[in-house]
Amino acid sequence: MQKQMDRRVKVGIIFALLIVVAILASFWVLFESSSHFPGFQQHRALPPNSFIPGDLEFFYASYAILSTINIALLVVVTLIYVDIYIKTRSQFTIGLVIFALVFLVKDVTSSPLVISYFRFRPYGLGPFELLPGLFEFCALAILLYLSVK
Predict the structure, then answer these.
(1) Domain ranges in the chain?
(2) In this structure, are residues 140 and 70 in contact, taking their beta carbons and an 8 Å threshold?
């Protein structure tokens, strides 16, 4: 009984800390962005129709390829976790299935191919468009390796 109570206290403390961090981050973004970046939320401009210097198409094409690879890795990882869940009926495994599905939805909705299908286009990010997908690929490759092992 005491162990269960300690677990509930730990979960409550973690949620409380997450709420505090979210509130502090919200205040930080609101106050810092308006003081350091005048017009941060007041001015929205349409993307230019021409080439943006420093905004290489290579990074967006690479990110489209990397995003598709990440989606494929997530499908494989999800199928592996579903197979493990069918065999074990473990709650932890169903949590991993949900985790992988949420990342799959995130990757599908942020894929440059899906974004361009709806006539939107990212611009002005250059290599910073590619880096998060690259890090996610590394993490997914490790996760897949550990899941198959």
Answers:
(1) 8-45, 56-149
(2) yes
